Amino acid sequence: MPTAKQLADIGYKTFSTSMMLLTVYGGYLCSVRAYHYFQRRSSRRQAAEEQKTSGAL
User: Where do the TM regions start and end?
Assistant: First the structure.
């Protein structure tokens, strides 16, 4: 039978691990959103430049 201290240690480690995983997952989601944002921005910029050049001809 685990003692109160052992239960507290297990609870603390479980909580710490879950917070660490949430932080890593949040960072992943943030970086994916930033990547897609910059991809869309560059494709829009390229499309606008193509439209300018085709309109000038």
Answer: 15-37
Q: 3-state DSSP helix/strand/coil percent for the chain, to nearest 5? A: 95, 0, 5
Query: Which of the residues in the chain have pLDDT under 50?
Result: none
Confidence (pTM):
0.69
- Print burial letters for 36-49: b (CB count within 10 Å at least 16), e (below 16): eeeeeeeeeeeeee
Length of the chain: 57
Q: What pLDDT, on a 0 to 100 scale, did the predictor assign at position 55?
A: 66
Kindly state the helix (H) or strand (E) to which residue 25 belongs, with its residue range.
helix 4-56
